[in-house]
From TrEMBL:
This is APC family permease. It comes from the Bacteria. Pfam families: AA_permease_2 (PF13520). Its main location: membrane. It is a multi-pass membrane protein. The keyword Membrane applies. It comes from Mesorhizobium retamae. It is found in: Cell membrane. Keywords: Cell membrane, Membrane, Transmembrane, Transmembrane helix. The chain crosses the membrane at residues 12-31, 51-68, 89-117, 129-147, 156-177, 189-213, 234-256, 284-304, 337-356, 368-390, 402-423, 438-455.
């Protein structure tokens, strides 16, 4: 059932988009994995400060994003913004890179869900299923929710994300409480500690923890008040994520002590947060946080699936991909064909990893999210450059444009630096994965393909004449 109407129903409020965006960032999983690795391999006790630095750069990026949003009338996020500022060929390149990036994150999230679910249910309920079976369950749930109206997914994510945030608030309160044995110190936010150790690696893990926040712009056509709703959701999300990560990671540092947290992380970074829960909260909370790691992976998969489907929808509607991808369900007003396509591609990719008997965490999740981190940050840098170019071209029309230009340039430099950090430390981010070490080549290949498709689809001519 397809609809001839290509404009989705405007049903999302700012908080709906906020939950979609923050769920994609997967706060619990980000703190438990990226935060702990940042402590061990990066700048140690200064990791909470790294989150604030990354958040500051991304707030500047968001300001430029918001300034340009009234001029970008449709979904497509990176594609739409890059195309508007740098032209249709650059937009085509960004579009195809974005498809690869979001597709990879969906695939990786399925692997993450499979791993965490298999461990939790086997250890706590005696249900011993392989990660492959749990991954299949995750794909079925995602397919059903993704096919339906977007508000269903937003409500489910709101519930899951609220629990995820609350459990980390419990840990933070337990550590900072007056009766806590932890000594409250502020070394995590001192500049010498922030830039200590392998500062670049710590900053890289901080940026990676924000993956997915920019997806707010994808929902512009489904927002009740268009770009205003998206703007509120985007700024709220990036500020919340930055502060929440920094405070939560600070609590984890204090749980072990500034002088002992590095040693604790070196024992096993993957269990650092869990050990903090075991030490400062009731045993029931440890079980709860292990379960919420499962729901965090599910929430991220749902949010990323929605984002990927809307990229395909936007490109299908504009003729850069088959037109059928740009159709809407007659009753649900969802991009159902695009959603089914993402489900099928994800299923095939996960099956290939399963047939190869790949480790769901160290191979599947690591390889896909490593590639996604590199691609997302490059796209953010290019989008910020697009905002800067757009601002320069329109500098005589609006007050304050030179200040806006400065903000966009600072964000571009910051994100460009982050992209270089990821490229330099790619092996640190993903580990040695053999043939998958060459996965980053998918990004320039996708970019070239996007340029070719943009040229052949007539986008370049149409837009240059507009």
């Amino acid at each position: 059932m397809s609809s001839t109407n290509t404009a989705p129903r405007r049903s999302l409020h700012a908080f709906d988009i906020f939950f979609l965006v923050v769920a994609a960032a997967a706060p619990l999983a980000a703190v438990a994995s990226n935060g702990a690795l940042g402590v061990l391999m990066g700048n140690g006790v200064g990791m909470p400060g790294s989150y604030l630095l990354a958040g500051l750069v991304l707030i500047l990026f968001a300001i430029g994003f918001i300034r340009m949003s009234p001029y970008v009338k449709h979904s497509g996020a990176f594609y739409a913004y890059v195309r508007h500022g740098l032209g249709p060929l650059a937009g085509g390149a960004a579009a195809f890179v974005a498809i690869v990036v979001y597709g990879m994150m969906v695939i990786g999230s399925v692997g993450g869900f499979g791993f965490f679910a298999s461990v939790f249910f086997a250890e706590n309920l005696g249900i011993d299923l392989s990660w492959k079976a749990w991954g299949a369950i995750c794909l079925v749930i995602t397919a059903i929710v993704g096919y339906r109206e977007i508000t269903l997914g937003a409500r489910l994510l709101a519930a899951l994300l609220t629990l995820e945030v609350l459990i980390l608030v419990v840990l933070t309160v337990a550590v900072l409480a007056p009766t806590s044995p932890a000594a409250v110190t502020f070394g995590s936010f001192s500049l010498p500690n922030i830039v200590s150790g392998s500062f670049g690696v710590g900053l890289m893990f901080a940026f990676v923890s924000f993956l997915g926040f920019e997806s707010a712009a994808i929902y512009s056509e489904e927002a009740r008040d268009g770009h205003r709703t998206v703007s509120r959701a985007l700024i709220t999300a990036v500020v919340f994520i930055a502060l929440f990560y920094a405070i939560t990671m600070w609590a984890v540092v204090l749980a072990f002590g500034e002088d002992k947290v590095m040693a604790a992380a070196s024992e096993n970074p993957g269990t650092l947060v869990f050990r903090a829960f075991a030490q400062y909260t009731h045993p029931a909370f440890l079980v709860a946080v292990q379960f919420l790691m499962v729901t965090s992976a599910l929430a991220a998969t749902l949010a990323l699936h929605n984002a990927a489907a809307r990229y395909l929808f936007a490109l299908g509607r504009e003729g850069m991909l088959p037109n059928v991808l740009g159709s809407l369900h007659a009753r649900l007003q969802s991009p159902h064909v695009a959603s089914i396509t993402i489900t099928v591609v994800s299923l095939i990719a996960v099956m290939l990893f399963a047939i190869a008997d790949a480790d769901p965490l160290m191979t599947l999740l690591s390889s896909t999210f490593g590639l996604a981190a590199l691609g997302i940050i490059i796209l953010q840098a290019v989008t910020s450059l697009s905002v800067a170019v757009f601002t320069w071209k329109n500098r005589d029309r609006e007050a304050g444009s030179l200040f806006q230009l400065l903000i966009a340039l600072v964000a571009t430099i910051g994100l460009g630096t982050a992209a270089l950090l990821v490229m330099k430390n790619y092996a640190t981010l993903t580990g040695s994965l053999g043939l998958l070490d060459y996965a980053p080549w998918l990004l320039p290949i996708a970019a070239v393909l996007g340029v070719i498709v943009a040229m052949r689809s007539g986008q370049a001519t149409q837009l240059s004449e507009a």
